[in-house]
Amino acid sequence: MQRLFVPLLLLSSTGVASATAISVLNPGFESVTLANPGDYSSTNIPGWVTNINSSTFRPQTSDYPGGIPEGLNVAAVTNGDLTYQTLSATLTADTTYTLLVDVGNRPGFFHCYTVSLSAGSAVLVSDSSLSPAAGTFLTTTLSYYAAPGNADLGQALKITLGDSGVSGQVNYDNVRLDAVTGPEPASFVSFGSGIAALFMFRRRVLMR
């Protein structure tokens, strides 16, 4: 009976993969020192490419009574603008990428947002589905598996944070990107389920 369980334990141990953090410059937007709550550093988000309507911003307590996710500052993307960062990492085959970004609703300003992960000029995955309550943040999680043979392999990864309305402002904080090398998670689960079913069938046969 014990021999039936050993292969399943081996399958579980070999299927465990650890995530590797990919370097993102100024992920919490703390590279600029702002003296007072409510201050902006206009068109200045170090490490990120900005336009006229993207700034480092230090919110006031009235903006986020429960605080912001990390540090003192956030990125403020306004009036349909965007800010982006092209990373040193490139899209690699057989790798699952997970991008997490905290999206904030500054009361009286928030309308809609877009977060995306690209490789070169190709958008791999994007999200605009969250609706954080006024004065709070929610975390958007985007995942993408780069299969072998993907046409965009070797292209530099890019994170884009946007305000997808014609007016308003989105606040962003705590940008994280992880990578896990190995089979696509869904494929692995299916494979593992198939193996488990095989051994359950074998167990029933042996018990007859």
Question: Any overview of this molecule?
Answer:
The longest helix has 23 residues, at 185-207. Strand 7 (113-119) and strand 8 form a beta hairpin. The protein has helices at residues 6-14, 185-207; strands spanning 20-21, 40-42, 54-57, 74-78, 82-90, 95-104, 113-119, 122-127, 137-146, 156-163, 169-181. Strands 1, 2, 3, 4, 6, 9 and 11 form a seven-stranded antiparallel sheet that branches. Strands 5-10-7-8 form a four-stranded antiparallel sheet, with no helix packed on it. It has one domain: Galactose-binding domain-like (Jelly Rolls, Sandwich), CATH 2.60.120.260. The radius of gyration is 22 Å and the shape is elongated. It has 208 residues and is α+β, with helices and mostly antiparallel strands. Residues 1-14 and 187-208 have low confidence and may be disordered.
Task: Pick out the low-confidence regions.
Answer: 1-14, 187-208
User: What structural class is derived from the secondary structure elements?
Assistant: alpha+beta
Describe the biggest sheet? 7 strands, antiparallel
Estimate the global geometry from the Cα principal axes: elongated
